[in-house]
């Protein structure tokens, strides 16, 4: 019988854990299914095609053309004014043309710009990953917080319900006054209101979770975690140095600047010559010609050099130079802002950890005090008000603890986001 019981317990335990949802599971689900991330991935594919388009400009082009018409002539007049014979004709022309650009400064620059655009699209994807994954972590931890708060409020409600029941018995026995009972009932009513609010908060948190991550049947499936699933920087200096290499905002600003520089060079290329070489073979079958059938080969070299455009090209160059200066300033601002954000995130992490440790001490002290006051109340040396106040202090400490645990967890991921490591690669999502 004992073996059977153990087997049942193990089976139940395994079944319950089979449906457990870890933070890593939730992030993977978000990474795979999020619409915003999928949209950014399509943007990368589009940028890759832009590169292919630019590469095509270095290759020759082949153009096929042809035409045929139907002519029906009833009367013709020759050059001397006399009548000529009539006939039906179907004139045909066809040609094939091979053309190759041999000099074009702009096409190389356009290719370089599109390569930079691809890097920019990848940086924007990483930024979007950070935003989406941070929202998922926030939703995950908030649902756990709502669940824990509901459980704490439920225990408090049950405790105060028993308090009211016991106080009714004590009132009948003359051990307490009607005022004591009224205090218990008032505290119980307040606990009922808090419990109702906690249920509402849990429902809202669940809806938010499902909107960002996906469906979940039971919030109890979520595994509580107070530490990051990946390694954090060891120091503030390490965090700042890592952020300079990985922060997507800095990368985006850098690639924006590189693109702007390329636009300046592309504008300047409009002042330079272009050259191309073409070979065309044509065939003609036309009665209007002195020769019924004709084949022709044409080899042509074309050189074009813009001489004057009314100052438009120079204005384009100046405009792009101004935009480049703007992008350079934005990069400087991104670097300064990054250092501030990382320092702030590091400070928040340290303070949240310190606050969490203090709250843990507070909870332990409140538990000891609550147990002692409850025992003294049973012996008649404490009043109902003492018990109610003790319960309230314990409840407040417990709620503060679960909030502090969540804040500490979010502070860790806030730091990762500031550094630029809250992405699929660092988190090893797939």
Mean pLDDT comes to 88
Low-confidence stretches: 4-18
Q: Could you tell me the radius of gyration in angstroms?
A: 39 Å
* Percentage of residues in strands: 5-15%
Q: Indicate the CATH class of the domain at 117-271 and 309-424.
A: Mainly Alpha
Strand order of the largest sheet: 1-6-7-8
CATH architecture of the domain at 117-271 and 309-424: Up-down Bundle
Explained architecture:
The protein has 430 residues and is α+β, with helices and mostly antiparallel strands. It has a domain at 117-271 and 309-424: Outer membrane efflux proteins (OEP). Helices cover 68% and strands 13% of the residues. The protein has a four-stranded antiparallel beta sheet with strand order 1-6-7-8, with no helix packed on it. The chain has a two-stranded antiparallel sheet with strand order 2-5. α2 crosses α4 (105-172), α4 (105-172) packs antiparallel against α7 and α8 runs antiparallel to α9. The longest helix has 68 residues, at 105-172. It is elongated, with a radius of gyration of 39 Å. The two termini are 45 Å apart.
Layout of strands and helices, then pairs:
Elements: H1 2-18, H2 23-33, H3 35-56, E1 61-68, E2 71-73, E3 76-77, E4 83-84, E5 87-89, E6 92-103, H4 105-172, H5 178-212, H6 236-246, H7 248-269, E7 274-285, E8 293-304, H8 312-379, H9 384-419, H10 424-427
Antiparallel strand pairs: 1-6, 2-5, 3-4, 6-7, 7-8
Helix pairs in contact: 2-4, 3-4, 4-5, 4-7, 4-9, 6-8, 7-8, 8-9
Quick structural summary:
68% of the residues lie in helices and 13% in strands.
Key descriptive features of the protein:
single chain; Outer membrane efflux proteins (OEP); 4-stranded antiparallel beta sheet; 10 helices; elongated
